[in-house]
């Protein structure tokens, strides 16, 4: 038997070797579903059933795609290139670029980010004289997205759903929005799947092309596909029916984004005779972690039901830890400290993950990691490329390579300020409409006709001349230097350099990082596509950094040590699930908790805070019900939850801070009461970067410190330690 097959158990091997015909692998976390899929990929190639580019493999995130590419390369012992392996969106975009003209676009169509989508929709609504204060673009957008997730083009939306928005025009606004996107040569995220599905459905030639191309289809995280993705797969798999989907109903966590767990049932129905394979041995987690996770998920009612047993020889292990803290500051200190001590004992940082329920939770950890010098990376996309300076720089790039990109041009026309305010912009828009040309072309005409006066005229002339220079320098300088040059030459870098705000240096760093990121791509176009699609920060894979991400982003991943902070009612399960009452949202929250715990190989460390600041207010929190639901024999507790369990008659933890005495030794430094926001004027402090200094003045949480070496600086009090 081939070497790679011996690394599988019997059920896994069966799933790999059942090459022809539909296969559905339904199995719990860590049972090797992804390993099955990767091995199957290699098996198809090694048994010469198909060439690499004849396999379509769908992963849920770019990170997962990268991992799968690496795993396949390792199995094949050579780099895996030219593969159709990626997220639904990336694969659909690739198809659409090839057949762009069949969906009324050109091959360089842009993919709008959420901001641009909203701005476009708002313009459409305003043109229809809709009161966008009463009916917000956001709420209409979510209706449209729901339709797109269900595979519905404007004409397909059933009439009775037209009122979803409270006014009758939702459907026609949707149609107008689609028209507008077409005119912009753009698509939004939902269109990638919707339009490619529709193309496959109505164009037999395209469908036949992909039927010939894709002999085998592999799908990971199948439980989180939505309807349009399902239809897309079904169309592609129709001919050969060689489709293998793997998933776990207990890890379905995207119903809020339209995922349909019913797709599992649909599969059995649409592919009669599908082979259903169950995997039951978990190879990832220690026995206590597995038992804790299984005990928790058993509280859900709507389950297909599965057995899971530890498959690892060394499965015995430490119990799951549950810690109570005074507030999130103390929690983040403790977590950072624990990570630091793990590092000192030889643990790799990249084997630690902090998984949060909501984005706002990352801030405390980020600040703490920065303060004590623990390198970390955020996975999940909503950071780097969403920052204003990055979006500005990318808009410049977009205009550079796609002069007709009106949204990008509008974004940067007066950034930095060059006298092109609202009036100038209106003139531009009028001209563009009258001449039926893009804004950039209208700007050129206005410049030629000298329509604008004074500062505006100069500003516009400078900008247009700039783009001409940058474009003509591009072939000579190469795209990476061009971007650096453009940012300086346009005055954009200077704009941030002149800003004395505390965040300005960071923004300049970000811009440098963007230039570095661009170097990974051969062309600006390739990079822009990537930016539209990224869901994770791109880091060199060998960088040793702690992972910080939401639970949603952690799906499919695994780490030696997993921190699960913020297990409090209202945070996790989140308030929305609690407000809704019913069990549906609550069960989804519980599945998310299950996903969280099952990411851990050796250590799962749950924590909760007694107090939490929600915007400006402090709120008393009670430990999450999920903590209560963990089987007692699988966990150890310190802090307020322990207090509650030992004194069940007590009401929730409202009192001062008796919990602090209960901490075990290795947490003791963290157990110090949270410092008051003010550090006294005159006291001595230590700062990671600037060293020792004396506080000269204090205002709210800002301190003016005279550092012994670095001189006078203003810093946030969180970043210094009293000495
Ligand atoms: P999830 O539901 O979280 O996506 P999964 O079912 O996809 O999990 P994998 O990530 O494929 O599980 O596997 C979990 C871990 O177990 C991985 O480290 C994998 O290498 C290992 N593993 C899988 N199968 C075996 C096996 N037969 N023998 C040893 N280790 C295995
Ligand atoms: Mg997996």
Write down the overall mean pLDDT: 85
- The tally of beta strands, per DSSP, is 23
Assembly type of the chains comes to single chain
- CATH architecture name of the largest domain: 3-Layer(aba) Sandwich
Number of domains: 5
**Distance between the ends:** 65 Å
**Could you name the ranges where pLDDT drops below 50 across 5 or more consecutive residues?**
535-541, 646-677
Shape: globular
Radius of gyration computed on alpha carbons: 28 Å
Content-based structural category: alpha/beta
Q: Report helical residue fraction.
A: 40-55%
Question: Compounds present?
Answer: adenosine-5'-triphosphate, magnesium ion
Number of helices: 27
Q: What about the largest sheet? A: 8 strands, mixed
CATH class of the largest domain: Alpha Beta
CATH topology of the largest domain: Rossmann fold
Strand proportion: 15-25%
CATH superfamily of the largest domain: P-loop containing nucleotide triphosphate hydrolases
């Amino acid at each position: 038997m081939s070497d790679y097959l011996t690394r599988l158990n019997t059920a896994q091997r069966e799933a790999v070797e059942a090459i022809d015909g539909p296969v559905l692998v339904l199995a719990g976390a860590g049972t090797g579903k992804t390993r099955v899929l990767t091995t199957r990929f290699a098996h198809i190639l090694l048994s010469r059933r198909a060439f690499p580019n004849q396999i379509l493999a769908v992963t849920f995130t770019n990170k997962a795609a990268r991992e799968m590419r690496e795993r396949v390369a390792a199995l094949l012992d050579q780099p895996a290139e030219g593969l159709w392996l990626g997220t639904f969106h990336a694969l659909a975009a690739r198809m659409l670029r090839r057949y762009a003209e069949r969906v009324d676009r050109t091959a360089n169509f842009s993919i709008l980010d959420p901001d641009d989508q909203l701005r476009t929709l708002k313009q459409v609504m305003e043109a229809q004289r809709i009161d966008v204060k009463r009916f917000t673009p956001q709420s209409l957008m979510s209706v449209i997205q729901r339709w797109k997730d269900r595979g519905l083009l404007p004409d397909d939306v059933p009439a009775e759903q037209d009122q979803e928005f409270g006014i009758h025009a939702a459907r026609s606004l949707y149609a107008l929005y689609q028209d507008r996107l077409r005119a912009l040569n753009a698509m939004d995220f939902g269109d990638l799947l919707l339009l490619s599905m529709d193309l496959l459905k109505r164009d037999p030639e395209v469908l036949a092309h992909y039927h010939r191309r894709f002999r085998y289809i592999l799908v990971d995280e199948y439980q989180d596909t939505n309807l349009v993705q399902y239809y897309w797969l079904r169309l592609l798999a129709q001919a050969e029916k060689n489709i293998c989907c793997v998933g776990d109903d207990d890890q379905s966590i995207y119903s809020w984004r339209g995922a349909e767990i019913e797709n599992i049932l649909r599969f059995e129905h649409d592919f009669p005779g599908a082979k259903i394979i169950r995997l039951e041995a978990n190879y990832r987690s220690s026995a206590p972690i597995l038992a804790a996770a299984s005990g928790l998920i058993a509280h859900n009612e709507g389950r297909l039901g599965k057995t899971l047993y530890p498959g690892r020889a060394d499965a015995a292990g430490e119990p799951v830890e549950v810690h109570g803290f005074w507030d999130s500051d103390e929690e983040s200190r403790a977590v950072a400290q624990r990570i630091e001590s793990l590092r000192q004992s030889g643990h790799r940082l990249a084997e630690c993950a902090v998984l949060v329920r909501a984005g706002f939770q990352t801030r405390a950890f980020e600040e703490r990691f920065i303060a004590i010098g623990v390198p970390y990376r955020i996975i999940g996309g909503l950071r780097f490329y969403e920052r204003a300076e990055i979006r500005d720089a990318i808009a410049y790039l977009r205009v550079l390579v796609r002069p007709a990109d009106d949204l990008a041009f509008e974004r940067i026309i007066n950034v930095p300020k060059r006298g092109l305010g609202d009036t100038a912009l209106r003139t531009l828009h009028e001209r563009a409409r009258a001449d039926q040309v893009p804004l950039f072309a209208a700007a050129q005409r206005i410049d030629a006709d000298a329509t604008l006066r004074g500062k505006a005229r100069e500003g516009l002339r400078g900008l247009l001349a700039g783009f001409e220079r940058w474009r003509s320098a591009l072939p000579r300088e190469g795209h990476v230097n061009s971007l650096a040059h453009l940012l300086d030459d346009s005055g954009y870098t200077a704009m941030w350099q002149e800003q004395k705000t505390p965040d300005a240096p960071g923004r300049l760093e970000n811009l440098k990082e963007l230039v570095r990121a661009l170097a990974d791509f051969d062309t600006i176009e390739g990079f822009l596509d990537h930016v539209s699609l990224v869901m994770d920060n791109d880091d060199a894979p060998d960088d040793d950094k702690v992972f910080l991400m939401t639970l949603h982003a952690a799906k499919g991943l695994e780490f030696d040590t997993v921190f699960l902070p913020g297990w409090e009612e209202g945070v996790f399960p989140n308030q929305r699930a609690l407000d809704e009452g019913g069990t549906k949202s609550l069960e989804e929250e519980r599945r998310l908790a299950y996903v969280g715990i099952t990411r851990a190989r050796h250590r799962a460390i749950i924590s909760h805070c007694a107090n939490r600041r929600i915007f400006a207010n402090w709120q008393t929190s009670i430990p999450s019900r999920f903590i209560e639901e963990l089987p007692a024999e699988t966990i150890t507790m310190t802090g307020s939850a322990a207090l509650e369990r030992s004194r069940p008659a007590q009401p929730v933890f409202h009192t001062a801070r008796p919990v602090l005495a209960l901490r075990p030794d290795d947490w003791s430094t963290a157990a110090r009461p949270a410092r008051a926001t003010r550090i006294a004027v005159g006291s001595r402090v230590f700062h990671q970067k600037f060293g020792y200094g004396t506080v000269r003045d204090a205002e709210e949480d800002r301190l003016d410190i005279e550092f012994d070496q670095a001189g006078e600086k203003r810093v946030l009090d969180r970043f210094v330690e009293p000495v």
